[in-house]
Amino acid sequence: NEFHPFQEATIGVSFLSKTVICIDTNKAIKLKIWDTAGQERYQSLTPLYFRGAGAAILVYDICRRHS
């Protein structure tokens, strides 16, 4: 729950798994979060990461147009 302004950029892909409880159904949902690199040199790998995904979350810096 913290923002680190000097966080190193992701190289390739980084994985995180987290289980949360749905408040409507009280069932556990396992989230598999893939932090993919945004650099242009990794764009050819992007389709491999997103194949079969049920959702996507885009994160960018609104103060830096090129992000």
Automatic annotation (TrEMBL):
> Which terms are listed as keywords in the entry?
Nucleotide-binding
User: Which domain of life does this protein belong to?
Assistant: Eukaryota
Checking InterPro entries in the record gives:
P-loop_NTPase, Small_GTPase
Q: Output the SMART domains linked to this UniProt entry.
A: RAB (SM00175)
Keyword Zinc in the entry? The reply is no
Provide any one GO MF term from the record: GTP binding
Entry protein name = Uncharacterized protein
What species is given as this protein's source? Phaeodactylum tricornutum (Diatom)
The upper taxonomy is: Eukaryota, Sar, Stramenopiles, Ochrophyta, Bacillariophyta
